[in-house]
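[Q] Does anyone have a clean structure-token version of this?
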Amino acid sequence: MPDAAPIELSDKSEAFVMHFGEMGSRWGFNRTVAQILALLVIYPRALNADQISSALNISRGNTSMGIKELQSWRLLRIERIPNDRKDYFSTAGSIWDMAHTVFEERQKREIDPTLSMLRSHLLDQADHDDAVYAQEKMRELHDLLELITQWAGHLNNLSAEQLQSLMKMGSGISKMLDMKDKILGRR
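[A] Here you go.
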């Protein structure tokens, strides 16, 4: 059962949360949103908005907006306590689950609209040399994004254990590809 008392972070935990906020802003997240997520990742119990505000020294309104943003990304789970009107928040699954969710959301918000725009532009006939060149580059980008999307879709269907195994193979995969190319005379 979540505890409604204010929380205090150790120096290391606070440094992690602040660093995550900085990194989140580089990844396209609002700094406060990233800090809220980091806090919920490392805190062992669900927290209410007042506890989050207090721990991060941010306004209650900023906390509410951050929580809503994280909910729109499907990264939070709401917990309720009998006889307590407050909502308590925790992360929606493991680190691997959240990475999977972030990938899905980024694809839906960024990649899919870009692919739709490219498909639309590629349907039009180019009417001069510059337009032909532009379409060739758009086709290359479209094809790259399609390939990445297909590959990522396959990766997304793997379990966390399978993904970890694949990642641990690391340079071994590129060595196998180099060997294949040598055998086939491509290099």
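[Q] Thanks! Anything notable?
[A] The first strand starts at residue 47 and ends at 48.
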